[in-house]
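Re: folding output
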Amino acid sequence: MYQIKGKIDSNNSPKFEKEIMAALPNEIDAAELEYISSAGLRVLLKLRKTVGDVTVFNVNPEVYEILDITGFTSILNVKKAYKEIDLSGKPIIGQGGNGTVYRLDDERIVKVYRSEHSLEYIEREQQYAKAAFVSGIPSVIAFDVVKAGDNYGVVFEAMNSDSLGHALSTEPDKRDEYLMKYVQLAKTLHTTTVTGDTIETLKSMLYKRLDDDFMKENLKPEEIDTLRSIIDAMKDVDTLVHGDFHPGNIMLQNGDLMLIDMGEVTRGVPIYDVASVFRDLISAPKSNPDICRTSMGLEPEWAMEIGAKFIAIYTGITDPQVLEGYMKQLGLVYAFNVVMLLPSVTQRDVRAPLIINNLLRPVVMPNAEALKHILSQ
């Protein structure tokens, strides 16, 4: 990778231009770049016009500010240098499937992701958390992406609060009140419209997962074609979907609910979120009761009761037979949802063969046309 160092200004920009135009790099390491003037920026613009896309890595805050103010962050692909933090002695306040949460101080926490999570995924959660908050979704405020040892994390505001799951478990007299707030949060999310490229569409995210090497290596070509046809049939909408809408990902602060874990947020059909409730509160308690306790703080029987009531209140369906039919539809979307999570499970998870053999082949494949109808509504 081509390196640029020190200060680049009108005095040394001719030499800088001669050297970089001889090399014609499309990747530049700016870790040791202290300053760049307008003369140096013109050289980078010339390089951009010559080689096409140019990525500049490890840009310090001072140089990034220059690039941002001058509009060069829209011309070049600029990657900030990440602040390194020391977690020695910092208390662990939570652990989940994605990583570990540490308390930095009274005002901030940091969620450090496991090594298998890409930096792109981590940056996505930070960016989507910000976008959701700006759009009016009650959610935790995200600050910077940081580096902690060999892993990366996101700094969030510290919330002196309880998870909705724990509150539902420990305050039975308020369970109905919290349940109504849970439903209202879902309706707020599913009626909030976001346009443009701020947040990816659900269809786009699913296409990317379908193109993952794991899917190509483990599924038959005709299975991939069928899954693609289901995604094709999905209705295009710009309302928000959380993607992991269970009570462990919702905090209760001063009586209000606030969303956390925003890495799966997309724009798409609301039923995909309702299916995630079905997945975590109705299906999971039967197949893996410990998941309810560890990720949501709920006993399995309570989780199933809350999940069933949530779906009934959310949909407004009072006829038991109609509700049973809707639950069957959710079961199909749930099966499709879990299959499309396979790339995040991959070879490290023993569930992958079970998902393929117990959900993809006997459930999703025979019901592809029904899924297309459900997801196109």
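--- second protein (sequence, then structure) ---
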Amino acid sequence: MQSYKPTKYALLSLLFTAALSLQYNVYAEDEKGFLETNHHHNTLISTVPANGDQNPYAIIVAPVSAGSVQKGDVLIDNFNNATNLQGTGTTIVDYNPVTKKLSLFAKIPKDLAGCPGGVGLTTAMTMLKSGWVIAGSTPSTDGTTATKGNGCLIVLDANGKVANTIAGNNINDPWGNMAVIDNGASATLFVSNTGFGVGAPDPNWTIVNKATVLRIELSIPAGKPPAVKSQTVIADGLSERAAKDVFIIGPTGLALGKDNTLYVSDAINNRVIAIDDAATRKTSVGTGREVTKDRLLHRPLAMILAPNGNLLVTNGKNGQVVEINPQTGKQLYAQWVDTDKAQTPPGNGDLFGLALTPDNTGFYYVEDDMNTVVLAQ
């Protein structure tokens, strides 16, 4: 009988599988986490609409049924157009978990009046209880920051029609996934801005410490679009820079704790920071209070609050989601959710948006390399 001799590829595959297992378990300390209950990852559907837009960024779950959207639907926006130029995506798609079908929710005019530079939809998106959808735009004409505009927040009705835009001196490339306080007739948005002082990519990857976190107070009159009541910069001096591969790197994930603390992923400095008294403070906290840094974090991006009060953070430089206790700063797990070996390390640059399922037992995320939405449960 001929003896079995593993190929080089097989050995590498075995070693990688072992590494994944070790990476997941070595940090499974005494404290148990939410990720420990999620082991199955099911690809649901392609996020590419008829016009070919790609690179899914934001992902949110509809809190209500309104217009063309059903409660529990998953809305996903696209940052790139069909030719894969960044900052040029104009579509939001709607995945219905019951019918398992994808439909087009909105196709926004590329040169939208009131949105400086045009439209390139980012991870900054939310749907309010009143049915209004608000999406951020960080636009470009050639796919790089050399031609980027200041962008805006776009207000759409529940049928995907543009109703208004929010722009001005405090808004420059709204980038990170929004945290929201929604009271129905009023709402508070928290969004990061990563465009201040950022120009074209340069060989030195120059870092600019001008990114901000902005709090926007909205009034929502019955039957009328949300109107801005006030704007307050609650953090500034955060790191940002242009990037050829991912357009801009800067503060991306925002998650609001029950104690009124806003947590922000500071991607360039590989850490998570906290902004205390986020909903009420009248001044900027500067660069915030450091919660945790390095270890399992590898360019932290999207971030949400898990049902147990911990933070879930996607890594931009590998295919992991990290769970963090925000009170202690302890990093509990790094679960590989994207092991695509086409990237180095696996899943590098694939993960952006995160959203909890309505029953709080799992989470949705997007894989931008495959243009798909995935359910972890």
